[in-house]
Design goal:
By secondary structure, the chain is mainly alpha-helical. It is about 65% helix and about 0% strand. Helix 1 packs antiparallel against helix 2, helix 2 runs antiparallel to helix 5 and helix 3 packs antiparallel against helix 7.
Length: about 180
């Protein structure tokens, strides 16, 4: 197979639509998970130097509530991917902030490598690393604490809601594995 032929894909058509029940429980999980993080952010972190909500949690919600059986959505990946990527992103900013383009690229690329090496690959982790670099003064002021709050704590809240909601319907089970 030639290089360009690989870009044609291997199947025809879109994947099948999920059931209405699956759509409903994905919606409920995302509403409660993101709602919990957002609510706690507004109650306890507004007006402080801390932040609990970061954009990458939106993508984590897609995985944790919409693709519950995916290896990328499992607890180890959800929490570990965010924390490891946050540490990498902060380090990249601290070392390379004079060359922002390089800090941004190094943060994401190194986060991917670190998640692979630790078996915690979680695609939103790439955004968590990038946010550590481009997040502005409020995020930069957190330094390595960014890995705990918001990255770690927010991921743990999303996980708690995923454990509760994803096990309500008989058609779902979460997690598939812990480690």
């Amino acid at each position: 197979m030639s290089y360009l032929d690989k870009m044609r894909g291997t199947t025809r058509g879109s994947p099948p639509r999920v059931s209405d029940s699956e759509v409903f429980w994905s919606w409920v999980g995302a509403m409660l998970g993101i709602g919990a993080v957002a609510g706690l952010n507004h109650l306890y972190f507004e007006g402080t130097g801390f932040v609990l909500m970061i954009g990458s949690f939106g993508a984590s919600a897609v995985l944790a509530y919409g693709a519950v059986r995916s290896p990328l959505a499992q607890p180890r990946n959800l929490v570990g991917g965010h924390v490891i990527s946050a540490l990498v992103g902060v380090a990249a900013f601290k070392l390379l902030h004079g060359q922002m383009w390089l800090a941004e690229a190094a943060a994401v690329a190194t986060a991917i490598a670190a998640m692979h090496l630790t078996r915690t690959l979680h695609p939103p982790g790439g955004a968590t690393a990038l946010i550590a670099v481009i997040g502005g003064d409020r995020v930069h002021a957190l330094g390595f604490l960014y890995a705990l709050v918001p990255a770690g704590l927010g991921a743990l809240i999303l996980l708690a809601i995923a454990l509760l909601v994803n096990n309500i319907p008989a058609s779902r089970r979460y997690p598939e594995f812990w480690y």
